[in-house]
Amino acid sequence: MFGAVFASAACFGDITPPRGVQIGGTEYNMNFAIPSPVRLPAATSVVSSRVVAGLRVVDSVIATATGLKELVDPARYQFWVVNGLTGAAWPVTHSLRLTRTDSAFSGGAPTTSTLITNRGNAPFFAGARFNNTIRFKVANGTGADTIGQSGSFLVLTIQSDSGAPAYTGTTPKLLWFRFRDQKNTAANTDDAVFDAPAGTFGSLRSISDSTRYIAQGFGRSAFWDRERDTVLHFSALAIGLPQPPVGYYYQPYARDTRTGAAALFGGLREKHTDTSLVAADLAPARGTLVQLPDARFGVRDDSLQCTFGACGDTRFKSFTAVQLVLEPKLGDLRYPNLTVALQGTIPTLLSNRRAKDGLVLVTVTRASTGAAVFSATVALFGAGTGTLIQSTTTNAAGVALFTGVPSGPIDVRVFPPASVVSPSLFQRISVVAGDTVDVPVQLQ
After folding, report:
1. Are strands 89-91 and 76-82 parallel, antiparallel or unpaired?
2. Would you say 392 and 350 are in contact if contact means Cβ atoms under 8 Å apart?
3. SS3 117
4. How crowded is residue 257: how many other Cβ atoms within 10 Å of its Cβ?
5. Mean pLDDT lowest for which of 12-21, 155-164, 342-351, 356-365?
6. Among 165, 181, 212, where does a domain finish?
7. 159 and 281: one domain?
8. Contact 236/219 with Cβ under 8 angstroms?
9. Are the CB atoms for 174 and 211 separated by under 8 Å?
10. Of 2, 61, 177, 242, which is most buried, counting CB atoms within 10 Å of its CB?
11. Which of 180, 212, 244 is the last residue of a domain?
């Protein structure tokens, strides 16, 4: 079946050669599959309620969410409450608490620390990096009823302009909770309240028309040295992708999973008509599982745009994977979203062409005495990404040696042992293929 895809140039335009016909330089094939696990925006919730004069009154809904990527100003996230019977919707204010989890090291082992920031009451939220957990508390208002007796759904939306919030058929409604069952009656006496409703990620077009996002599909691709000039033409075919949630689209990236660096390129286009699929989220949905038509995407590898971290040589041979990422249309493209829909691993025959790895030799001493520092933790990170590459502790001579370090910019961070009172130190270095980089570090 794989060969059949390349038997006709109609599948990939004129970028890849017909099967069995050698035209131009070398061709490298790569399959796409769904990664495991697929990380989606997610949330859990807790509902506080009480009985007043025989009626079940909801006092608050606390939602704890992850994966809410930062949006570009003036776009914001906003909660709305929806009446399940009438469809009426109204915006609500929330109190916000951010819990940031950071990684550090102690005795050579990674440790985590948390920082909790209370933001107070606000109607909007701009999003956060993926080491943040967001706690929203929506309380029943003191004036007109907000969630007390008339609301049944809490819906998180993306507003394109926080100065003019709206709840329409095309407003992205990406996460929702049903905290009350109104039993199809206008009376409140028979309502049932769910104490811990689970959040759903997808498209809530209306109360009676929703689609949960479920990753599916596969793909095939080829890298082709078409002109025999070492410039690779990459072309891919994605099959059976689910329709993205309203407000989202699929964006291709080249990724270096060793360092976290990313380069975006191109976009999905319908295979036969060559039309963009950026607006595929707004296509009419029929049924609970809607697929996109077969889609293609591609690029010359000398046209990759490094957007996150330090990519070094921005050619496919310098990366480890190609990913199709589910991105919010109003999201910050300076870094990829966490939801990878499909992923392919760069073929070994191609990755073997990348620059050789280098060595990093870190020597840690005391600034006051020049004595070697034993058991200091030294960690290497992808430049500007926070992706851990390697870590170890210094030996009795104060030395930490790293082999197999990817060439290009690398961040070095040194954490002193408990016996040394000194702040951690940071330094950015450049690793040259096949060479050793000496990094002298002096602690206080």
Report:
1. antiparallel
2. no
3. strand
4. 16
5. 12-21
6. 212
7. no
8. yes
9. no
10. 61
11. 212
Closest CA to 313 of 231, 252, 386: 231
Across the beta sheet with 321-328, the strand order is: 305-308, 262-264, 248-255, 321-328, 340-345
Residue 51 structure tokens: 């009985």
Mean pLDDT is lowest, of 9-23, 52-66, 255-269, for: 9-23
Residue type, 7: A
Domain span at residue 147 reads 42-212
Alpha carbon distance, N-terminus to C-terminus of the chain: 63
- Integer Cα distance of 73 and 381 in angstroms: 29
Is there a single domain that holds both residue 206 and residue 329? no
3-state secondary structure at position 379: strand
What is the phi-psi region of residue 106: left when phi exceeds 0, alpha when psi lies from -120 to 50, beta otherwise?
beta
For the cut 60, the answer to whether the pLDDT of residue 9 exceeds it is no
DSSP assigned state of 70: P
pTM for the structure as a whole: 0.89
How does DSSP classify residue 348? H
Out of 8-17, 98-107, 114-123, 270-279, the most confident range is: 270-279
Residue matched to tokens 């966490």: 338
221 to 17, 233, 383, 385: CA distances (angstroms): 12, 10, 29, 28
Burial of 285 (0-12, 13-18, 19+ CB in 10 A): middle
Cis peptide before 347 (omega within 30 of 0): no
